[in-house]
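If you are new to this repository, start here. Below is one unmodified record pulled from the training split, so you can see the exact layout before writing a loader.
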Amino acid sequence: SRSYKGDPSLYLNSVIHEIKAELKSADYNIRFHALRKILFVYGEGGDTTWAIMPVIQFMESPTFGFKRLAYLLLSLIVDPTGPELMMATNHFKKEMKKSNVFELSPMLICLANVIDTPLAQQLHTELITLHNNIAKPLVRKKTSVALVKIFRYAPETAETHIETLVKRVSSETSNSVLSILITALNEILKTQPALYPLMLKPLYDLLERSKNNWLLIKVIKVFHRLIGIEPRLKKKLMEYYYKLLTTTNAKSIEYELSYSVLVHFREFEDLFSLAINNVSKFLRSTDLNLVSLGLNMLELLLIQEVSKLAEYLEFLQGLFEKATSLATKRRLLGLLMRFSGRTYFSSSTQTVLKYLDSGKNPEFKQDIIEAVLKLSLIHISEPTRLLSISYAVFCLKKK
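And here is the target side for that same chain:
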């Protein structure tokens, strides 16, 4: 309590002692209040590991308010490495046979937060069955989140359920549920890439018919992973990607597609040119978020072909001088120092060193000095020139 002036640990110990006594009471209100006190102890950083078993017991309560609070507490205080969680397995199995949305929702939220490998191995069948049988999109959405965790902690279960999951993707009408199901497919691909052929048809269908930008982003990310597994997919995807890049007005879609094209589609000239144009378009935007995304794409492009810096060097130097955002200046400093090489070393260092005269952020000034000196050691072999540059930087720093 804020009004308590003594040792906080002594106060928390006294509260814990009260809670343990109140949990044994036959009075519903007293026990409910004890559960709320456990939440307080957790919030104050006190030890709550002793409360896991009582909380699991209260999950069996017929009173909804009691169960909801118990689910919240379990997701907060449970030790994933401890044995207590397995005690809740039968409870979760029993609850998943219900159809009441209000009871299922907090249970599924709790399960998604506490699930571990043993629990995933025990509950995957019941969870898939619930997902297939429940009518409410809200519950299917929460079930889908739990399925993502199932495939993360028990990837061997994916082979059993992949066909059912793919059918659900094809028939699902809710974009929010679909979005999480796509995440589940992506999770499966991380550990079971051989299952990819079963996923292709519904993913192609979504790429062609979906109008939801965030869902399309998820699908593009999955295909980005799939191309790494099966490069022959590029020939068919090229048509979809070209159509999307030439018709969409959504910057988020343009970025995801352009990034994927820069990584995987260099041999397709028309498509690759569209992605290159988007790099320039993003960099010249007045929106700093788009500029940052443009720098991401440019960095990727320079990693592949450092000679491309010649086309962007003057623009990047001008952007460094005009940028008002310190975050943007840091990104530009990193790019200029990383890719300038011996050819553009002098030009790039002169640009960034100007900041030492006018800039107000001493920490960033220090970053510039360290970056320039480090690059000087790499690209200047003559001791006299290196010493003169070091002295010049020192003089600028003193200013």
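Two things worth knowing about this chain: The CA atoms of residues 292 and 327 lie 9 Å apart. The two ends are 51 Å apart (CA to CA).
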